[in-house]
Amino acid sequence: MTQNALSNVSRETIDQLEAFVALIEKWNSTINLISKASLPHIWRRHIVDSAQLFELAPRTGHWVDLGSGGGLPAIVLAILSKGTGGSHQFTLVESDHRKSAFLRTSIRELDLQGRVISERIEGVAPLGADVLSARALADLTTLLGFCAHHLKPEGTALFPKGQNWKNEHAKAQDNWSYTSHAIKSETDPAAAVLKIQDIKRV
Ligand SMILES: C[S@@+](CC[C@H](N)C(=O)[O-])C[C@H]1O[C@@H](n2cnc3c(N)ncnc32)[C@H](O)[C@@H]1O
């Protein structure tokens, strides 16, 4: 990759991302944050893949990331927001308590803005998100149900999706109407980031 989502970020932001990668590598020996097979490719497969969401979102507002796992994309986005003077408030929802401990440690050690809710998404009171993201969590139909509960009516959802995204999009039409843009992924030519707004149940 010559140009990518990290091409124009500052040295300080790269330092923070490197510190986050070091935390993932350290914790991954005891908790499965990312697959061992993907560790050697962590920058492209996980960090750039997460970072590409940042430019697609407004510069301010409440950003909710569901099923945050090892902090992808949420911790990467909080680092970029801090580095670019963005003013987001991040909420990370992750039901696994060990992963939540990792997320809280990352927020503290990297001096980021963000809170972690260690509960199942379905049991959390509506969060009123301006931006909602979720990576590798569920199919699009399920994610749109989460949006109905946690995203403001005028909010924006950002979902990185694999090569099956067109099928998920077609199936979701059975239950939902929405406007969507598919932005080609920087890290996988068959994948896309779906930017979704105006979500209504049909
Ligand atoms: C496949 S992992 C993806 C993690 C991360 N977003 C990534 O891209 O690497 C899905 C994560 O969502 C969490 N999760 C799954 N269902 C959930 C639910 N209903 N409520 C909260 N967290 C959930 C799991 O514990 C897991 O950490």
From TrEMBL:
Localization, UniProt: Cytoplasm
Sample GO molecular function, one term: rRNA (guanine-N7-)-methyltransferase activity
Pfam family, one: GidB
First-tier enzyme category under EC: transferase
SUPFAM superfamilies linked to this entry: S-adenosyl-L-methionine-dependent methyltransferases (SSF53335)
EC assignment: 2.1.1.170
Signal peptide positions (record): none
Binding residues for S-adenosyl-L-methionine: G67, L72, I121, E122, R135
Main localization (coarse): cytoplasm
Source superkingdom: Bacteria
InterPro entries: rRNA_ssu_MeTfrase_G, SAM-dependent_MTases_sf
Reactions mediated catalytically: guanosine(527) in 16S rRNA + S-adenosyl-L-methionine = N(7)-methylguanosine(527) in 16S rRNA + S-adenosyl-L-homocysteine
Keywords: Cytoplasm, Methyltransferase, rRNA processing, S-adenosyl-L-methionine, Transferase
Family indicated by similarity: Belongs to the methyltransferase superfamily. RNA methyltransferase RsmG family.
Name of the featured protein: Ribosomal RNA small subunit methyltransferase G
Organism encoding this protein: Sulfitobacter aestuariivivens
Phylogenetic classification of the source organism: Bacteria, Pseudomonadati, Pseudomonadota, Alphaproteobacteria, Rhodobacterales
